[in-house]
Specification:
single chain, about 200 residues, mainly alpha
């Protein structure tokens, strides 16, 4: 399965809208619904043109994360990364639900690490915001506390998702072409060997 840049961008935007790090422009309930793997699988399947496979993989991944809760800002996995890039990667690789669940667990843990890094990075800007408040510089305070973390969120979720999907698609396509070339070379060698065997008896006569 191939993917276009526009499809990767749409999946990245959906991942950003479903992440807990974003500013939740559509409301917390909508964001929470988007973060569910079965919803993410449906959206990814619709974008990639295979809704049935997306829903099947999303349902399998959802079953593993039914008890997933976010307590005190600590999560074992980032559900946005579980629901979007992992399902997209599984569909691009034409993997079954079992492989997709394994991939989702791995990507989800990596997403949690990205979330932790995001929180650490944002704490730097929050401390800068406190300094700007002390200096009565409201404009810079709004910039550090309201604008910069939105950019960081977009980089951590949307752009990371887009890059991962495009790179995986490129690698999958490269491996597919290499496999076809190997099969073609093997077929050529077999044909050559058969031709040589059919020619040798004629030469002996």
């Amino acid at each position: 399965m191939e993917i276009t840049v526009m499809q990767a961008i749409l999946i990245g935007i959906a991942c950003w809208l479903g992440s807990v790090e974003n500013c939740q422009p559509l409301g917390t309930n909508f964001t929470d619904a988007l973060s569910k793997p079965i919803v993410g699988g449906t959206i990814v399947g619709f974008i990639l043109g295979d809704v049935a496979t997306g829903v099947t993989i999303g349902a399998a991944v959802q079953a593993m994360y039914l008890g997933q809760v976010l307590i005190g800002g600590v999560a074992t996995a980032d559900m946005a990364f579980v629901s979007y890039p992992s399902i997209a990667l599984a569909m691009l690789a034409r993997a079954d639900a079992t492989v997709a669940v394994t991939l989702a667990a791995t990507v989800g843990v990596l997403g949690a690490a990205v979330f932790t890094g995001y929180e650490i990075l944002c704490s730097v800007f929050y401390s800068l915001g406190d300094k700007f408040i002390a200096n009565n510089d409201i404009n810079k305070m709004k910039l550090t506390n309201d604008q910069i973390h939105k950019i960081i969120t977009a980089v951590c979720t949307c752009i990371t998702t887009i890059a991962a999907i495009i790179l995986t698609s490129a690698c999958t396509l490269s491996l597919s072409v290499q496999k076809k070339n190997n099969n073609s070379n093997q077929g050529t060698e077999q044909t050559t060997s058969v031709d040589s065997l059919s020619i040798n008896p004629v030469l002996k006569k």
